[in-house]
Structures are given as structure tokens and as C-alpha cells.
Amino acid sequence: MPPSRRPLAGFQGAHERMGMIGHNTLIVLLGCAALGAASGVVGAFALLRGRALLADAIGHAALPGVVAASLIVAAFGGPARSLGPLLLGAALSAWLGLLALRALTASGRIRQDAAIGVVLSAFYALGTVGLSIAQAMPNAAQAGLSHFILGQAATLTEGDAMLAGGLALTCIGVVAVLFQPLRALCFDEAFARSQGLPVRWLDLVLLALLLAVCVAGLPAVGLLLVVALLIVPAAAARLVTQGLPAMLALAGALGAAAGAAGALVSTRFENIPTGAAVVLAGLVGFGAAVAWSRR
Amino acid sequence: MTAPFSVEGLNASYAGRPALTDVTWAASPGLTAILGPNGAGKSTLLKAALGLIPSDSGRALFFGGSLDQARSRVAYLPQRASVDWDFPASALDVVAMARLPRMRWWGSVPRAERDVAHEALDSVGLGEFADRQIGGLSGGQQQRVFLARALAQQADLFLMDEPLAAVDAVTEQTILAVLHGLVREGKTVLMVHHDLSLITAHFDHVLILAGHVVAAGQVAEAFTDASIAAAFGGLPGRA
Amino acid sequence: MTDFLRLDLPALLAAILAGGTCGLLGSFLVLRRQSLLGDALSHAILPGIVVGFALTGLRSAGPMLLGALGAALLATLAIGWVKRLARLETGAATGLVFTGFFAVGLVLLEVTGARSADLDVDCVLFGQLETLVWLEATSLSSLFDPVALAGLPRQLGLLAAVAVVAGLVVALCWRPLQLIAFDPAFAASLGMRVGRWELGLNLLIAAAAVAAFESVGSILVVAMLVCPAVALRLLTDRYRVQVLGGAALGAALGALGVLLAGPLPAVMGLALSLNAAGLIGTLAGFVVALCLIFRARRRLEAV
Q1: Whether C216 contacts C18, CB under 8 Å
Q2: Is residue C115 over pLDDT 60?
Q3: pLDDT recorded at residue B188
Q4: C142 vs chain A: nearest CA distance in angstroms?
Q5: CB contact under 8 A, C219 and A120
Q6: Which has the closest alpha carbon to B25: B41, B42, B10, B46?
Q7: H or E stretch including C125?
Q8: Chains contacting B with at least 3 CB pairs below 8 Å?
Q9: pLDDT of residue C228
Q10: Is the CB of A132 less than 8 angstroms away from the CB of C275?
């Protein structure tokens, strides 16, 4: 369609001419904001359950899956950068990482922190080996794949942002539906059990939410730093709120702000990985919360 | 005669909350039980006196002097749960750690120190278990290894944190017998005790804490229904 | 042979030294139940390294090492502050601090243009074992020629120095380290300044992380710190075997990874070479898995 026939063409042009954000960038920002909000909310529960660091293991363990998915898709002649299969690969390999984690702690000899260290570093290493293979493949998928490590909002398409954003919003929806049982689980597990709540099942749901939120955050924030998005907004919110609903709301808001701010900075300065920008934006919010709590 | 252990005006906090307020007390030779409800500051008293946690004010004296002056005469037995019993070490290894101040930092353990460690293990009935992995020992045996380590320090003052908690009957009897042996040799044993049993049968003195000193003195005088009620808030169970 | 000396030997030596040193020190982290600290230190040193690099503009190890140690100290303090001020538990506080430091390091990396010299994001993420070369080598006699030896990559110098220091410290302080790992409260009651010992050990680990980082990158340093120690934990109940075995396994994994990175794909008919650091980490993971299986079968047989 010639530009003059597109609806709102003049308006959009005006935006871009004035140096404000373009349509694509707006969608990406909204997607990152949704990711941030979901990370804040799910991170709040993870923090309360003492599970926040699992996000570190999940993030790192996702790398081999992303690479493998890309290689498989390319082998079948599909578009190597299509986000859906990559996220699926990420989820599968992160889940394998969690199983490995369970196997290690079940030995009785290895504590969870050591097990997380083994899983995150060994899976990540496997991923880098995969990347060195992908690098030599003819359709050079590797260039896009490295962006999953530190995040790069600038390379997200509208479709990507909507997929990731949609996944994030689904997570928030699940949390909303299961709010009461999850609250009981976090505050008094013994009581929750005595009330007949399926504690193990709820923990699994929380784990699945953690997995989904981390995986959704990969293209924007990157696997190395997604754990920060789960901890920082939640920690800030817990410091200045009383009661879970307020904590969730604030964590979501801070996460959304950090996601959007980080993405905005990163689209302006393409050298700065989005993950780093988002983490730093989140830490600004955290610093503000600390200052507020001590006033 | 100088008290083997005393505290003056000791104030200490734990996790931001006051745990001990203005505790002043002098121990007497013999076997003393330190009692009180959860959070009464019993472990905190030992740790603060030994400088393991910072105290807000006050001081602790060991044989009339500072801890550094009396270091070789003082032995500390921490709670069993404070340690990872999966650690790669044998019972003898753990007991020999008590002799570290007298050994080089590398090389094999000198015969003399090894003998002291063996003796200590024998005296708690674990002579046969010297080369056993500590992870393979029962809770009671682990507690006895800890006691052997304290004995190997050849100290005059023993500060023990709940040595009888969650142990089997045989271990309980063994430990009490060892402690009575120490008292007969003129040593002083201060023991945080986790409940109110065994007091009249085995102990000479008590110190009852509830964040502050509730009662202190010989068992007959200080271990009364009134002082227990004051500390525990009227709970039954004197033995 | 000349090709081996010029192209493979430096990477091989670097991997062996890095693996051995980290494998040695990693046991203390695992035994003290502080593996997370290894993860944290490896990430937190990045801004220090970049600042040291950028401020002095030198390509020598000294400023980077100082910067890294400074960052490690600052990070340790920051974790304590965050725990207190934000009332967070240790794990979450540590995660917050080390990702924050890492993010700052990444931004500094771009902003200071340190990437123009041989320090860039790819090095941080993937290591650069493959870039270590010794072009001054001409033959076996170069191993004894001081002039040729001066051309060895600078990373080897730092790695060797840290390896020697770590080895000496562990050997000379064998018993105190064992006691502090097992029962720090008892150690303190004996009069040992446990806080200082722990600080010294942490700084040594940070130094090992800096030395290894330039070869294997930030994340793979974690693999070397944790995996050999965990593997040995699963296999042995003896302290000496744990500590020395961890060092030996780390060195062996380093060597194996470098030696296979080239030949392995060739055997499979692929015209590429694998990321050596990644292969080391992958092999380390495999070994841990094997040890898990071995241990499980041994327990089944005992039952």
C-alpha cells in the first residue's frame, strides 16, 4: 500500500519525524513491560518460597535447547530465527536442567546451591559448544542466537514481542486465578497442607510459572540476567509494602517499568545489551525502595 | 577465689532484637545447667561471651581475665546441628582438630597429639570408631565425637550448647558420666540444656534465663516452681 | 610439532592451570556450602576487570587483577548491606548483587571501548582459549629459550602465578582450612580469626576467577569451580582425596577439553572446531553425571 493510503499514515509519520518512538518500538516496549510485570509477580512468589535462584539455573540451562531448536528447524528448511520453536527448545532444556538439579540434590550429598552451580554452568557450556557448531552452519543462525544470552530488544519483531508478551500475560492470569492457594502456600505451608491444599501440585505450578516467565524473557532480557528481573522488583516491593496483594502489584509495576525503560535505552543505544539495561533500571527502583524504607 | 567464668552487664542482640539484657552472673565450679524457654538467650550467652557474636555492651571474664589470656583453658562445644556431618572426616580427624593450636599446619598428625585424640574417643566409648566416617555415625555418636573433641582440648572450663539434645539413652548416660568425671577433677562445666529433665539428679547449679536472669544458684534453691513459672510462663514439667 | 607448540600448547597449558586451580579452590566452596559465592565472584569481578583494563590502558595482568579483587571486596560488602537494608536472605541478596555487578560490567565494557583492545563480550561469554598462541616458538628448544618464552601469552603468566600461590596456601594452611570448612564456630573459639581466613580464601578464589576468566570466560569459571569438587564429593569420604582429587580432575578436564575441541568434530566429519571452554564445561557436567550414576549403583549394591 502506498504510504498515503495507510490509515494513520500521517500520524505515524509525524511520530517518527518528531523522533519519538515508532510503532514497532512501541510494541516491543509493551512486550518488555508485560515481561517485566510477569517477572515481578512470579518473582514475588519465588522470593517468598526461597526459590528465586532457580531462575538462574533455568536461564542458563535454556541455552542448549535454543541452539538445538534452531539447528533442527534449519535442518528442516524452516526460518532459523522463528521464536516459537526456540522458546519451546528453551523450555525443554531448562526442564531437563531442573530434573538434573533434582537428581543431584536427591543424592543427599550435594546441596542445592552446588547443584544449581553444576547445572547452570554445564548446560551453558553445552550451549556454547552448540553455538560453535551453529556458527559453521550455512544459514548462519548463530548471530541471532547469541542475543538470547544477554537480550536484545532492538532485534525483536512485532510478532516476537507479542508472543513473549502474551506468554507473560498468561502467567499473570494463572497467578490471578490461583492467588488464594499460592498465598497460603507461601505464608504457611504447614497450615496450607492441613487445609487440604495440594502443596506439591502448587509448588509444581509455581515452578512451571517460573519456567514460563524465564523462557518468555529470554529474547528480551537474555538468559544470564533474567534471574535479576525475578529478584529485584520483588525484593523492592517486599521492602515497602505490607500484605501480599500490594507486594504483587508493586512488584509487577516495578518490573514493567524496568522492562520498558531497559528496552527503551537498549533500542536507542544498540551496543548496550537489553538485559543489562533492564537490570540496572530495576536496581534504580530497588535503590529507591531502600531509601524510602529508611526515611 | 576467682570464678571460672563470669559476665558483667552483658547485652546482646540477635537479628535486630534484644536477646540478652543486662546479664550479670558468676559461675561456680561443678556442673551448671543453663535453662530457659526458646529465645531466652541461652546459646546467645555462650556465643557472646566467646566473642562468636558481637555483644552490645558488657564483658565476660574467664578465670578473672580476658578470653585471650585464658584461651587454652576454655573448651567450647557448639550445637550438633551447626555442622554438616557429611563432611569428609573420620571421628579421629574431628577430635584431632582440637589439638590444632599445638600442631603444625601441615604434615601428619604427631604421635603425641594422636594419642590424646584416641584417649578422648576412648573415654566417650567410641575407641573402635576412630576411623569411621562421621556421616556414618548415629546422632548420639556424633554428639559423643563432639564431646571427645572438647575433652581433647584438656581445658578447665567447658561451655556446651545442648549436648544432650536428641540423643539416645546410652549416649545420655555416657555423656553425663563423662561430665561428672570432669567435675570430680575440679573442672567447671556450663551446659545449655534443652529441657527441664535430669536437673535435680545430675546438676549442682542452675542459671535460668528469659532474656534476663530469672534465677541463679544451687539447684535446691534456684530450681523452684516459682522460678520456672517466671521463666516459662507457668508450664509444667519439673524433673 | 612446531604447530602444536605454537597453536595448541598455550591453550592446553592455560586450560590445565585454570582447571587445576579452580578445581582445587572449588572444594572449599562446596565443603563450606558456599558454591553460590563462586558463581557470584565470577560474575562480580567483571566491572573490576574492565575498569582496571580501561583506566590503565595496559595489556598487563596487574591492573585487571587489582580491579577484580576490588570488585570482589565491594561485592562481598554489598551482599552484606543488601541483606541488612533490604532484609533479604543470603541467596536472593547474592543473586541481586552479582547480576547487578555483571550488568554494570557489561555496560562499562561497551562504554569504555575496552572492546577495542582484546577484551570484549564474546571473551566474557565464551572465553578465548583458541586465541592463545605462541608464535615465537620454533622448535622444542624454544621451551628452554628465555627470549622465546617471553612471547608466551600474558594470560599464562597470571594463571601460573595464581596456581602457585593457591597451591602454596592450600599446602601450608592445610589444617586450618580444613577446620574452618568444617566448624568455623569451633575454630573461632580456638582463637582463629575466621573472618580474615574466609576473606583471604574468597580473594584467592576471585584471583583464580580473574586468571581463568580471560581463557574460559565468566560462566565457565563457575563450571571449573563447582563441577570437579561436586564430582569428588560424590565419590569420596576422605578430605585429602576430595581436595587433591578436585584439582587433578579440574586439570584433566581442562586438558581433555582442549585436546578434543579440534579433533572431535574432524572425526565426525564436521569442518569446524568446537568452543574449547564450552567443551571443558560439558565434559565436567558429564563427569558429574557419571559420578552420580556410579554412586547410585554403589548404594544399590550395598543395600
Answers
A1: yes
A2: no
A3: 95
A4: 32
A5: yes
A6: B10
A7: helix C121-126
A8: C
A9: 97
A10: yes
Question: In the 8-state DSSP scheme, what is residue B133?
Answer: B
CA angle B209, B214, B217 (to 5 degrees): 95
Shortest Cα distance from C190 to chain B (angstroms)? Answer: 7
- Residues 6 or more apart from C269 whose CB is under 8 A from it? none
Q: Which three cell numbers stand for residue C181?
A: 570448612
Round to whole Å and give the CA distance between B133 and A106.
Answer: 20
Instruction: Say if CB A256 and CB A205 are below 8 A apart.
Output: no
Cell of A113: 546451591
Sheet (strand B213-218) strand order:
B74-77, B157-161, B188-192, B30-35, B205-209, B213-218
Q: How far is C140 from chain B (nearest CA, A)?
A: 38
Residue of C nearest to B160 (CA): C186
ipTM above 0.85, yes or no: yes
3-state secondary structure C244-283: HHHHHHHHHHHHHHHHHHCHHHHHCCCCCCCCHHHHHHHH
Question: Cβ–Cβ contacts within 10 Å for residue C37, how many?
Answer: 27
Cα dihedral B210→B213→B214→B220 (10° resolution) = 120
Task: Kindly report which listed range (A157-161, A216-220, C110-114, C183-187) carries the lowest average pLDDT score.
Answer: C110-114
Burial of C84 (C-beta count, 10 Å sphere; 0-12/13-18/19+): exposed
C219 at A interface, C-beta within 8 A: yes
Q: What is the pLDDT of residue C118?
A: 63
Subunits with 3+ C-beta pairs closer than 8 A to A:
C
A95 to A123, C49, C80, C282: CA distances (angstroms): 11, 34, 32, 18
Do the beta carbons of residue B128 and residue B46 sit within 8 Å? no
Alpha-carbon span C102 to B112, nearest angstrom = 51
**Has residue B238 got a pLDDT over 50?**
no
Q: What percent of chain C clears pLDDT 90, i.e. is strictly above it?
A: 55
Q: Is A249 on the interface with C (CB under 8 A)?
A: no
Low-confidence ranges of chain A (pLDDT < 70): 1-21, 80, 138-143
For the stretch C181-194, what's the b/e string if a residue is b when 16 or more beta carbons lie within 10 angstroms of its beta carbon? bbbbbbbbbbebeb
Nearest residue of B to residue C181 by CA position? B87
Task: Name every residue whose Cβ is closer than 8 Å to that of residue C77 and which is 6 or more positions away in sequence.
Answer: none
